[in-house]
């Protein structure tokens, strides 16, 4: 993209691919992430005073979509994927300048050698996404309780998530199994399938790459069953 802003960091998150990323922040509270600061932004002076704030605005690039271009109208999932509205009345990832923004929880600053990380919660951003700016969230001006949310005024309905016996065995043997289970459950409860399939039985087995695990699941109406959880190896092609 010509005239792209400077990249000041990279996101490290559980979401290794676009599929199953929550469509908004706050929907998967168990998932944590971090920003790895880059270049001149990777210095203690740049984050001085950040600890005063509980939440941050993170501005980033939808880099995986830039080559696909954009259209003036889109089909939001919240409208079933059938009704078209203007791109500026949506949070579609296909936008004229491919810029996204999320209000996320600030969990602290860590440093490993010379590398500074900003620790985050409630992130809805794909692993590896380039960050172009970070700003403090100001409750007195950024929170508007009387605001109207249009067609997305309410939080999405959640599906029930169950784990098969093989999936439970994998989680019980994993050193961070309880946390992994919580993230998987919160992610899949959103039903990441295309909008027109929500609430419908599906014969297909789906797979999503979370952390370094390949999570397979099926859907019967509003019940999602995790059928297996297996480690992803570098040479493995994700389905």
From TrEMBL:
<dbReference type="Pfam" id="PF01980">
    <property type="entry name" value="TrmO_N"/>
</dbReference>
<dbReference type="InterPro" id="IPR036414">
    <property type="entry name" value="YaeB_N_sf"/>
</dbReference>
<feature type="domain" description="TsaA-like">
    <location>
        <begin position="5"/>
        <end position="146"/>
    </location>
</feature>
<dbReference type="InterPro" id="IPR040372">
    <property type="entry name" value="YaeB-like"/>
</dbReference>
<dbReference type="InterPro" id="IPR041369">
    <property type="entry name" value="TrmO_C"/>
</dbReference>
<keyword id="KW-0808">Transferase</keyword>
<comment type="similarity">
    <text>Belongs to the tRNA methyltransferase O family.</text>
</comment>
<keyword id="KW-0949">S-adenosyl-L-methionine</keyword>
<dbReference type="InterPro" id="IPR036413">
    <property type="entry name" value="YaeB-like_sf"/>
</dbReference>
<keyword id="KW-0489">Methyltransferase</keyword>
<dbReference type="GO" id="GO:0032259">
    <property type="term" value="P:methylation"/>
</dbReference>
<protein>
    <submittedName>
        <fullName>Putative tRNA (Adenine(37)-N6)-methyltransferase</fullName>
        <ecNumber>2.1.1.-</ecNumber>
    </submittedName>
</protein>
<dbReference type="InterPro" id="IPR023370">
    <property type="entry name" value="TrmO-like_N"/>
</dbReference>
<dbReference type="Pfam" id="PF18389">
    <property type="entry name" value="TrmO_C"/>
</dbReference>
<dbReference type="InterPro" id="IPR023368">
    <property type="entry name" value="UPF0066_cons_site"/>
</dbReference>
<dbReference type="GO" id="GO:0089715">
    <property type="term" value="F:tRNA (L-threonylcarbamoyladenosine(37)-C2) methyltransferase activity"/>
</dbReference>
